[in-house]
Amino acid sequence: MMSMESYEKSLAQLDLYRKLAEAEAQIKNGEELLDGEEVFKTLKKKYEKQ
Predict the structure, then answer these.
(1) DSSP track, 1-50
(2) Distance (Å, rounded) from C-alpha 22 to C-alpha 26?
(3) Burial of 13 (0-12, 13-18, 19+ CB in 10 A)
(4) pLDDT average, residue stretch 29-44
(5) What is the largest CA-CA distance in the chain?
(6) Which whole-number Å values give the CA distances from 34 to 18, 25, 49, in the listed order?
(7) Report field, pTM of the whole predicted structure over 0.70
(8) Model confidence at 47, in pLDDT bands (50, 70, 90)?
(9) What percent of the chain is predicted at pLDDT more than 90?
(10) Distance (Å, rounded) from C-alpha 40 to C-alpha 19?
(11) CB–CB of 27/33 below 8 Å?
(12) pLDDT at 45 over 90
């Protein structure tokens, strides 16, 4: 038995591993990569308090 905190941490870690595997597969398949700085600029504009 594990605590709720440990369970949620495990779920978050599994989700991270899934996303990393998906990204690696996209790279192997030659899919176009997004520029990290541009992505963060877009997110900042979208979620920035006005």
Answers:
(1) ---HHHHHHHHHHHHHHHHHHHHHHHHHTTPPPPPHHHHHHHHHHHHS--
(2) 6
(3) exposed
(4) 94
(5) 45
(6) 19, 15, 25
(7) no
(8) very high
(9) 86
(10) 18
(11) yes
(12) yes
